[in-house]
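Protein: Protocatechuate 3,4-dioxygenase beta subunit
Species: Sphingomonas carotinifaciens
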Amino acid sequence: MDHHDDDHDRGLSHDLQVIGEKIVERRRALAWLASVGGAAIVAGSAAAQMSRGSVTPGGVITVGGGGRSTPTPTATPAPTSTPTPTATSSAGCLVDPTETAGPYPGDGTNTSSGSTSNVLTTSGIVRSDIRSSFISSTAVAGGVLVRITLTVVNVNATCAPLSGYAVYLWHADRQGRYSLYSAPAESYLRGVQVTDANGQVTFTTIFPACYDGRWPHMHFEVFSGLAAATSGRYAVLTSQLAMPSAICSAVYADTTTYPTSASIFKGVKLSTDNVFGDNTTAQIAQQTPTFAGSTSAGYTAAAVIGIAR
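Structure follows.
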């Protein structure tokens, strides 16, 4: 029979010793449990802070989930929007080049048949429809209708329109003749207008012919005001407008109205013209009016005239 070494039935002294040892072990156990519980409470508190997120004095956010520290993000500036371009003297407009007034300006700068011809000092020169003569004849110049609007701007003020300026426009008729000169009895296709608040003037006229030696064109002079224009010889700019090639071809196809222009136009080039030929691409672009319309209904045209004020 097996016998077990039990802790009972061994006497009072033995029992007291065992009880003392148990008390010591219990105290150690309680101390251990207390230490473990405190650590657990601390850990729980730290975990709670991590889950909420806290910022250290160094600018570091401590975040839960792995306990990885992430630097405080630096605010990224909002993207700077690209400004809308505005017209400038280098991009929106430029100074029109000064060109010759040619042999037929009628502005008092030359003579015709031995006498000075200055239509600018003649009553009736201020008009928008320049198709008719107004001095000694009332003949009306025939041809394809053109209503052209010219806008005078100041290139030194971001292309601001110039109001109150006077524009004198003149050009050849459908046969390549100029009134007061090669058509001495006529005064048509010449006129002066004053720019409005938008810096604009509009002339009703006809499409000019193409004549020997020149690309089809219109002449103009700009004056600081009407008084300067009608006094004569005070222009702040003298220049010319080049007619667009495609419109020239369309208009000159009517050889009844424009009897000689089609054949002459085949032999001229804008690049070798003695007025436009040495201009830059940008200058030519500004000197060439935009056209809309047709030969039957007529055309509207527009161009910018840049001067430095």
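Remarks: Helices lie at 12-52, 226-231, 245-252, 261-265, 281-287.
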